[in-house]
Write the structure tokens for this entry.
Amino acid sequence: MSEAIIKVEKISKSYKIGETIHHDTLRDLLTDSFHGLLRKKEKKIHDNDDFVWALKDVSFELKRSEVVGIIGRNGAGKSTLLKILSRITEPTKGRVEICGRIGSLLEVGTGFHPELTGRENIYMNGAVLGMSKREIDRKLDEIIAFTEITKFIDTPVKRYSSGMYVRLTFAVAAYLETEILLVDEVLAVGDLAFQKKCLGKMEDVARLGRTVIFVSHNMGLVRYLCEKAIFLDNGRVEAIGSSGEIIGRYMKNILSDENVNNSGLIPAEKKRVKTESASVISAAIEALDKKSSRQFDIWEPFKIVIEIESFQSDLTIIPWVFIYNSFGDTVLTSFYYDNAEKIKGNQGSNIKCALIIDPNFLMPGRYTVSVGIFGPLKVIYDWSEHILSFEIGNSFLSGRQFDGRPGVASFPYKWEVV
């Protein structure tokens, strides 16, 4: 049996509400670290309203060459867990043992010095990982080629866009020789073509026997890339097991009535990505008579209505909708430009648009809906995950009952005798 490369033992992490710590000098960092040691020595347990537990008694082991997905709703503690594993932050309680070097793709810009160029940051990250200059030299051309930002590689990264940051960060994490690769949902920032390229590279990394921990809301990707998954809920480990089993449990939780907004304003905790360009402020599922509904017959048309607020003038906005089945598979993806012109937003203006699903081709079952918007070069402005749900019943519009046919879709095709 392969040896454990990561051991997590009862780690918990608490944050003081409203507390933000900035270290402008090394002295500040050392002073704060010293006070942190004193606080740990006091062994205070924060259970009052001034503190929130991002993680609570989380334990698991990962073996070499395992590819593991971390899933859970926003606020479940996924990103906090990766920050602890990558040593960006320390747990309030518990301990972590890691045998090997870690490459991580977490928040945009994490691990980069803004005043250094892209090339200089590659060498700095490699040095931090304990690599020699010769080792980094050997990988440099591959890293730069993968980023597709060769023209800007000698520009200080403080002038990079978020998409350029992601390109460089992922290339550094994937190509420098580490035993463990941590990938957070920062891949959702940037263009869709590069996301696809990154996922292909992750497959290559996994085949080479490196341990990969992948945080994602895309259950299809988790099932495809990962043989194992960990389900976090409210900072605790809800379940660990095969990816198919854990995804099924997660989707059952997602589909419960109390976890879906279903109509009206979208709460901030449902947003995966949000920028200062534009935002989806509300969404609803309606029958064609404009009445809100959550249940439809097979082949019954309905529409998904989303309202968008633009924060800039003359802004190109492209809405999209994803529909998932109860297994977390994406069964429908539709973009506004499929059969309509792009939307132009103006500062302070609201735009309402609807995706009409006519006829409804889905089989009986429960479904969830994610909505989002992007702009030129497919840069994502906003993405709200699993904010709506609906159910397809067991009867056709004609009143005939569903006959149990297999498949994921049912179209009213025409038959004729020839």
Residues 55 and 235 are 4 Å apart (CA to CA). The chain has two domains: 4-254, 261-396. Residues 261-396 form a domain with the Coagulation Factor XIII; Chain A, domain 1 fold (CATH 2.70.50.60). The longest strand covers residues 380-396.
